[in-house]
Design goal:
This protein has about 180 residues and is α+β, with helices and mostly antiparallel strands. The longest helix is centred in the middle third of the chain and has 9 residues. A hairpin with a 3-residue loop joins strand 3 and strand 4. The protein has one domain: M1 Pyruvate Kinase, Domain 3 (Beta Barrel), CATH 2.40.33.20. The strands form three sheets. Strands 2-1-6-5-11-8-7-13 form an eight-stranded mixed beta sheet. The protein has a three-stranded antiparallel beta sheet with strand order 4-3-12, with no helix packed on it. A two-stranded antiparallel ribbon has the order 9-10.
Length: about 180
């Protein structure tokens, strides 16, 4: 790998915590990952559907940096790609440092616009006790810091595979920090 790249892709047709590895995933504009339970123009996450099933789905694709998984492993947590429910695991991209509206080109044609941060849920703790504390905490100022990846929407579809390059394009104008979606 010579630059930012996709290291693994995942999907699950069922609402389960983790997602199974796939050889490739098809991103569909306006919907998300074909065959994934979170794909759709309207919100698909169960807790959000209960609150308002008509809200737009700003969480069509979940991305996590492979470097975070390395850090978790060094802290004693076996967290392989897909375990935290992400669709795309990357390497060489500071996902958490991106601005809202950043566009990611995954592979040859797929474009994903980053909408915000994933809010880690309690299921993470069930996966590996002590893991949640590594994914959500507070900085020196007391601000909540979430590290469980970013969410995005598909603006241009395409096939994504491990080994595909990732290109990052910041949004126009002043950067807006990522917030919870």
């Amino acid at each position: 790998m010579t630059g930012p790249a996709v290291v693994a892709v995942h999907r699950s047709a069922r609402h389960e915590f983790s997602k199974a590895a796939a050889e490739e995933v098809e991103l569909v504009a306006g919907l998300g990952v074909a065959g994934d339970c979170h794909a759709g123009a309207r919100v698909q996450h169960r807790s959000r559907v209960r609150r308002d099933p008509d809200q737009p789905n700003l969480r069509q694709v979940h991305l996590i940096a492979g470097e975070l998984l390395d850090e978790l492993a060094a802290a004693g947590h076996d967290v392989p790609p897909g375990r935290l429910g992400e669709n795309v695991t990357t390497r060489g991209v500071d996902l958490l440092g991106l601005a809202t509206g950043t566009t990611l080109r995954l592979g040859g044609s797929a474009l994903v616009t980053v909408t915000g941060l994933r809010n880690p849920c309690s299921q993470i703790e069930w996966s590996s006790p002590g893991l949640l504390a590594l994914l959500v905490g507070r900085d020196a100022d007391g601000t909540v810091v979430r590290r469980a990846g970013v969410m995005g929407v598909v603006v241009l579809g395409g096939t994504v595979r491990a080994g595909d390059p990732v290109e990052v394009a910041p949004p126009p104008g002043p950067p807006v920090p990522l917030a919870l979606v």
